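Students often ask why inverse folding is considered easier than folding. One informal answer: many sequences map to the same fold, so there is more than one right answer. In these notes we will look at a single instance of the problem. The structure comes first.
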């Protein structure tokens, strides 16, 4: 599968979960949806950081936007850790989750609006296919380790 197509499908999935999160008034429902998008975002940023971004960084034209992307992932990661460390039904859960969602939405916009068009200019279709296949395989093995760790 083409790398950009694969990443865009992930983005759509995450945005759908964000909409569900915003649409429900139930706290327990929000927590369930939060866990779902956390898993999706974890695997997505993992394949970007291990396969996609390292290839992009090799291209002069993509270096800055890739470095910025890594920092944006970092901010989201910090927010996930903060939210996971909240005790009980903290009043901070929802506002923190909202800030996280805004950050991810902004990041997706930058990837799709700025980064991906440049990627298309700098990589051949064949290269994008190869990257996509690698990411698909890495995604599967990461998800396996996610579900293996879930029982802890
Ligand atoms: Fe992405
Ligand atoms: Fe990303």
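Output (designed amino acids):
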């Amino acid at each position: 599968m083409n790398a950009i197509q694969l990443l865009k499908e992930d983005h759509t999935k995450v945005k759908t979960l964000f909409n569900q999160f915003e649409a429900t008034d139930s706290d327990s429902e929000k927590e369930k949806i939060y866990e779902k998008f956390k898993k999706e975002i974890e695997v997505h940023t993992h394949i970007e950081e291990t396969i996609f971004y390292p290839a992009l960084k090799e291209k002069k034209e993509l270096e800055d936007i890739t470095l910025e992307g890594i920092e944006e992932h970092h901010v989201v990661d910090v927010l996930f850790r903060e939210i996971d460390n909240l005790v009980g039904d903290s009043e901070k859960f929802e506002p923190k989750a909202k800030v996280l969602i805004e950050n991810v939405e902004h990041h997706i916009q930058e990837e799709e609006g700025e980064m991906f068009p440049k990627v298309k200019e700098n990589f051949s279709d064949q290269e994008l296919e190869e990257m996509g296949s690698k990411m698909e395989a890495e995604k599967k093995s990461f998800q396996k380790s996610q579900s293996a760790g879930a029982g802890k």
